[in-house]
Write a structure and sequence with these properties.
Shape: globular
Largest sheet: 7 strands, parallel
Order of helices and strands: EEEEHEHEEHEHEH
Number of helices: 5
Strand order of the largest sheet: 3-4-5-6-7-8-9
Number of domains: 1
Helix content: 25-40%
Distance between the termini: 68 Å
Length: 226
């Protein structure tokens, strides 16, 4: 029996987001095909969109999950989120967390939600850019699924490369992502240390770096001091 054959069954799984989509890999991750070729000139965090009128920005979700997920969040109230997001120039697909110490089932589910929400945005005429998040090497069998090759890809480095213990995992995942997805352009929210990115800059990969909110605030404070 499928959900569709059960009379009165409410769609609590947001299956409408992936209706008519194709799926990829062992875990049936939705394929989110975006043809967007636009590089954002500026980014804004989702939690700041309520009060912002800077609609030329792309919305990002490189913030704590509690600021966009939960009972009133984008997954449980997608129509409400859509009305906010439609005002802006585009969206970097939500960054549902897949931390190394998360249960595998939760990491797969959050990867599914990233792609599904991206499909939902596309169906509603919003420009989207794929966000990629990985954890340990075992995650490679699902974390890159649903993303077309040679597209614009966005990643975050905030909190990922702060501790030395995470460096190997980050470098391995970055290398694997570049190898599998062969992005045309890579957007990086946060720092781009040479130890991770130098070889790709030198190889000719176009990389755009965006300061985090914390970094912007720090630079602003330093400028005010001078």
């Amino acid at each position: 029996m499928t959900k569709e054959t059960r009379k009165g069954c409410k769609d609590v799984f947001n299956a409408f987001m992936v209706k008519d989509c194709e799926f990829e890999g062992k875990y049936d991750i939705p394929i989110c095909i975006t043809q967007n070729n636009e590089v954002p000139t500026k980014l804004i965090a989702y939690d700041l969109t309520m009060s912002s009128t800077d609609y030329d920005a792309y919305v990002h979700f490189y913030i704590d999950d509690q600021k966009f997920d939960g009972p009133q969040g984008i997954w449980n109230k997608p129509e409400k989120a859509l009305e906010r997001l439609k005002k802006f120039k585009g969206v970097i697909i939500p960054d549902f967390s897949t931390y190394i110490d998360f249960p595998v089932a939760l990491k797969i589910y959050n990867t599914y939600r990233m792609r599904a929400f991206g499909c939902y945005l596309l169906k509603n005429g919003i420009n989207v850019i794929h966000n990629v998040r990985w954890s340990e090497p075992d995650s490679y069998e699902y974390c890159f699924s649903g993303i077309p090759k040679h597209s614009i890809i966005s990643i975050g480095t905030i909190g990922c490369i702060k501790e030395k213990i995470n460096w190997d995992f980050y470098q391995q995942g970055l290398d694997e992502m570049i190898k599998r997805l062969e992005p045309r352009i890579l957007l990086v929210y946060g720092n781009t240390p040479d130890k991770f990115f130098k070889k790709y800059k030198e190889s000719g990969l176009t990389i755009y770096q965006y300061d985090s909110q914390t970094s912007k605030a720090f630079k602003k404070e330093k400028n005010n001091e001078t």
